[in-house]
Write a structure and sequence with these properties.
The protein contains five helices and two strands. By secondary structure, the chain is mainly alpha-helical. The chain has a two-stranded parallel ribbon with strand order 1-2.
Length: about 130
């Protein structure tokens, strides 16, 4: 397929002529990695959506683990943090909303019932039916 100039939606390098935004992406990534925020406020077809697709917007297991550690300490729940971090990453690809939603569901809907049923402290672990 012949490339064209795109004036609608997302640009794809295999289909559209692209501007070189590599330097801008390096600057954005340096800000994100430094814990800073950034705002892209430009008119249509400036590359806002394309830029956001290039920024890694997910958590890896090492980034999920501190959240689990904090939860474990605050709630007095024992868990195998490295295994659970890997499992959460596997099932969510590290997507922040899904990681948080799964943890919230386990915390609010699953663990309370198990604690009451078993009459003992709660323990998060890898289910036996998971690989």
């Amino acid at each position: 397929m012949k490339k064209k100039f795109n004036i609608t939606w997302v640009c794809y390098p295999s289909m559209h002529y692209m501007m070189d935004t590599s330097q801008k992406m390096k600057e954005i990534m340096a800000m994100v990695e430094g814990g800073e925020y950034f705002i892209i406020n430009r008119p249509r077809q400036y590359g806002k959506t394309t830029a956001l697709f290039k920024v890694r917007m997910s958590f890896n297991p090492a980034e999920i683990a501190p959240m689990l550690k904090d939860y474990s300490k605050a709630e007095g729940v024992s868990m195998d943090i490295p295994v659970l971090s890997e499992q959460l990453y596997y099932y969510t690809s590290g997507y922040p909303f899904l990681v948080s939603k799964l943890c919230e569901t386990i915390s609010e809907d699953i663990l309370p019932g198990k604690a009451e049923k078993n009459g003992r402290s709660t323990y998060w672990k890898k289910p036996s039916n998971c690989f």
